[in-house]
Amino acid sequence: MPGYVTYETETGRIFGSGSVSEETDLPLQTNGRPDLSVLELSSLEEDLDGGLNDRLIYVVDGELEARPVLEFSKLNIAADGVDEAVLANLPDPCTVVINGEPHEVTGGSLELSADVPATYVVEIRDPFPYQRFRAEVVAT
């Protein structure tokens, strides 16, 4: 039984997965949607180390790849209003949630500085192709 993933052709975002009894059934898995493609897998166990997790992988050039991880330049900053932690390579635009408050970020980068000592919880729920992101930046 051939395993497969369906994915958005343009982005590589995985849309679904499964197996079919016949290889000839693979093209049918897009349900006629022109924006989807099918990638045949020899075995879900072999190709995905035990399971498909679309939060961790996507399709790049017809191959499964790990979704990249976002990282701040540093997690500790001085609470002086000048020192900053930078989060680069963001989708443009995207919504960044800081301590529960959403902020629209454009330009592909977030520069976080603080005047008040505190811990700032920063989350990005779907920064595709990057993995979900959550970090704490401590300003002292």
Secondary-structure topology with pairs:
Layout: E1 3-8, E2 14-19, E3 36-41, H1 44-48, E4 57-60, E5 63-66, E6 76-77, E7 85-88, E8 94-98, E9 101-105, E10 109-112, E11 118-124, E12 133-139
Parallel strand pairs: 6-12
Antiparallel strand pairs: 1-2, 1-3, 4-5, 7-10, 8-9, 8-11, 11-12
Strand order of the largest sheet: 6-12-11-8-9
β-strand number: 12
Query: What share of the residues does DSSP label as strand, in percent?
Result: 35-45%
Radius of gyration: 20 Å
Q: What is the helix tally?
A: 1
User: Please, what is the average pLDDT?
Assistant: 90
- The ordered H/E elements are EEEHEEEEEEEEE
Shape: elongated
Low-confidence parts: none
Specify the biggest β-sheet.
5 strands, mixed
Structural class call reads mainly beta
First and last CA, distance:
57 Å
Helical content (DSSP H or I, runs of 4+): under 10%
Description:
The protein is mainly beta and about 140 residues long. The chain is built from one helix and twelve strands; from the N terminus they run E-E-E-H-E-E-E-E-E-E-E-E-E. The strands form four sheets. A five-stranded mixed sheet has the order 6-12-11-8-9, with no helix packed on it. Strands 2-1-3 form a three-stranded antiparallel sheet, with no helix packed on it. The protein is elongated. The mean pLDDT is about 90.
Compact summary:
The protein is mainly beta. It has one helix spanning 44-48; strands spanning 3-8, 14-19, 36-41, 57-60, 63-66, 76-77, 85-88, 94-98, 101-105, 109-112, 118-124, 133-139.
Defining key terms:
mainly beta, 12 strands, 3-stranded antiparallel sheet, 5-stranded mixed sheet
